[in-house]
Amino acid sequence: MEAGKSKQQVVDFSKRAFERKLFAGTSGNLSVYDREKDRIYITPSSVRYETMQPADVMVIDLAGKVLEGPHKPSSEWRLHTAVYAVYPQIGALVHTHSPFATAFAVNREEIPATLIEMFFFLGGSIPCAPYACPGTAEVGAYAVPLLEDKGGCLLANHGVLAVGKDMEQAYIRAEYIEDAAKIYSIAKLVGTPAILSALEE
Ligand SMILES: [Zn+2]
Question: Which of 19, 50, 76, 201 is an active site residue?
Answer without folding.
Answer: 76
